[in-house]
Every structure is written in C-alpha cells, then in structure tokens.
Amino acid sequence: MKRLNFILLIITILVSFTCNEDVSDKGHDIYLKNITLFPCSENLKLSNSDDSEKYIKCFALDNKTLKFEQKLFVNCCSENFKININSEDNSITINITNDDPEQCNCICSIVLSYEIANLRENHTYKFIFLRNDQEYHIHELLFTGQINGEVIM
C-alpha cells in the first residue's frame, strides 16, 4: 500500500509540473498561407529590364496577419517557384526560389502574393528577403495590425 501511495504521489507531482508549464508562447509558429502567383505580364529582352520597377508592399489583414505583394523579374521560361519561410527570434527570412533548367533570352515580371500569419501585434520584426538563397533586401517593421500598403522596397 505504501508503494502504491508513493507511485500515486510521483504521478501527481509529474502531472502538476506539466500542467503548470508556461503555455503563453506555445502555438506561436509563424507560417505562410494564401500564396498566389500572377504569371508573366510582359516579356522583355534581357537588356530592357529595369530593376527600379521591382517592389515589395505589405498590408495588415488583421492583428496577426501581414500580406506581402512582390513584383519580381524572372526568366520567361521559369515556371516552378517555391517560397519558404524561416523564423528565428524576431527575424523572418523569406526565400523565393525557382530551379528551372531551361533559360530563355527574355525576362518578364511576375507578382507574388502571400500572407504571413500568427504575428504578434506591436512587435518589431526584421524581414530578410532572399531570391534563390541570395539576400536582396532587409526591412525592419513594427507590426501594429494597421499597416495599409506600405512600400518597403
């Protein structure tokens, strides 16, 4: 009987420790959703591309979600795009890749739209934008849930 009481005591202690865990930060993984790619809008010769037309805009959809819209110039034959996100502390890395083996002698502009969800309101984030693993823009942003079309590049 003493042994059974001792085992029950140990189980009770273990259960109370697991129930008293700080769960305030659990389930706070930042993730991508609603990814949309608008295909090539115009074909340009390689020499006619204008990097000044590239942009990144962001819009707060609510107090946890930020929508990004990016205009990029890509090879006309590119079809397979991937977007990955990695978050660590206050840094969020967004990597857009395409690994099409065929390359044409032209480029076109695409618009990529995506949402980053589960952000914390009134929290400053450092967004690091990569293209095929190469960094091309960094932007720090205080997320207030009220951003309306801010152009960050």
Note down, in words, how this protein is organized.
β3 and β4 form a beta hairpin. The N terminus is likely disordered. The strands form two sheets. Strands 1, 2, 3, 4, 7 and 10 form a six-stranded antiparallel beta sheet that branches. The chain has one helix and ten strands.
Largest sheet: 6 strands, antiparallel
The level of helicity is 10-25%
Mean pLDDT: 76
Q: Please count the beta strands (DSSP E, at least 2 residues each).
A: 10
Class from secondary-structure proportions: mainly beta
Principal-axes shape call: elongated
Low-confidence stretches: 1-26
> What is the distance, rounded to the nearest whole angstrom, between the alpha carbons of the first and last residues?
71 Å
The number of helices is: 1
Question: What proportion of the residues form beta strands (DSSP E)?
Answer: over 45%
Radius of gyration: 23 Å
**Topology order in helix (H) and strand (E) letters:** HEEEEEEEEEE
Q: Strands, helices and their partners?
A:
Layout: H1 2-19, E1 31-38, E2 43-45, E3 55-60, E4 65-75, E5 81-88, E6 91-98, E7 106-117, E8 123-131, E9 134-143, E10 148-151
Parallel strand pairs: 6-8
Antiparallel strand pairs: 1-7, 2-7, 3-4, 3-10, 4-7, 5-6, 8-9
